[in-house]
From TrEMBL:
Similarity comment: Belongs to the OMP decarboxylase family. Type 1 subfamily.
PANTHER family membership: OROTIDINE 5'-PHOSPHATE DECARBOXYLASE
Role this protein plays: Catalyzes the decarboxylation of orotidine 5'-monophosphate (OMP) to uridine 5'-monophosphate (UMP).
Xref: SMART domains: OMPdecase
Pathway the protein contributes to: Pyrimidine metabolism; UMP biosynthesis via de novo pathway; UMP from orotate: step 2/2
Protein name (Swiss-Prot/TrEMBL): Orotidine 5'-phosphate decarboxylase
Subunit structure, interactors included: Homodimer.
Organism whose genome encodes this protein: Propylenella binzhouense
Domain of life: Bacteria
Enzyme class: lyase
Biological process per Gene Ontology, one example term: 'de novo' UMP biosynthetic process
Residues annotated as binding substrate: 19, 41, 68-77, 124, 185, 194, 214-215
Length: 241
């Protein structure tokens, strides 16, 4: 499963979220970050602002792309979406961790293993109160663990979860699934709208493989310096498996 996507260097671990409103702004940020960053996430904001057109340029430049579209629909639509995403040349994409949707996605995954499928468990902006308001009886930690086990059973390549749940998820799914943790903040930084956050060192210690970092780099006065600082923090915290 996710073993083929395992990071080998600190640079492999850092995924910078291009959460900016225009494709031009994203391209400018990629130029600023240069060779320091080799992995980028494109989410809904940028995708709906023309950001998908950046994917071929990023891939041609040797960058890896995590297309975070959080697919959830009827089986045929999810499978068709995965096939279309695979054609873009991206490395990772996301599916909401509903068993039926995950099985549909796995059925459409390229046979060459070029596209990794990540199961989104519970958004890092949700806490137990948010889940209760949405009608869930389980709290975040319980629901994340349940969905992670479902993802493994469905044959997904990895899990997206808060670093706060990473240790329990790693214990539940074993060493071969990729764990991607958003909501990463430098020590002492504001949490913004995230509710379940950790530092890079804490996330790596908990078993995370790749760390998604957005505003601490994208909104920094000096994004390149912020990226270098995050890479230094990752390098200092690594415990390679």
């Amino acid at each position: 499963m996710g073993e083929r996507f395992r990071p080998r260097t600190p640079r492999d671990r850092l995924i910078v979220a291009l959460d900016v409103p225009t494709s031009g702004g994203a391209a400018d940020l990629v130029r600023v970050l240069g060779e320091e960053v080799g992995f980028y996430k494109i989410g809904m904001q940028l995708a709906f602002a023309g950001g998908l057109a950046l994917v071929p340029d990023l891939v041609k430049a040797g960058k890896r792309v995590f297309l975070d579209m959080k697919l959830l629909d009827i089986d045929n639509t999810v499978a068709s979406g995965v096939k279309s995403i695979a054609g873009l040349g991206v490395t990772l994409t996301t599916i909401h961790a509903y068993p039926q949707a995950m099985r549909a996605a796995v059925s459409a995954r390229p046979a060459d293993g070029s596209l990794g499928l990540l199961a989104v468990t519970v958004l890092t902006s949700f806490d137990d109160a948010d889940l209760a308001a949405a009608g869930y009886a389980a709290g975040a930690a319980e629901l994340v663990l349940r969905r992670a086990k479902d993802a493994r059973a469905a044959g997904m390549d990895g899990i997206v979860c808060s670093a706060r749940e990473a240790a329990k998820v790693r214990a539940a799914v074993g060493p071969d699934m990729l764990l991607v943790t958003p909501g990463i903040r430098p020590a002492g930084a504001a949490a913004d709208d995230q509710k379940r956050v950790m530092t890079a060192a804490q996330a790596i210690g908990a078993g995370a493989d790749c760390l998604v970092v957005g505003r601490p780099i994208v909104a920094a006065g000096d994004p390149l310096a912020a990226a270098r600082a995050m890479l230094d923090e990752i390098a200092a915290a690594e415990t390679w498996r």
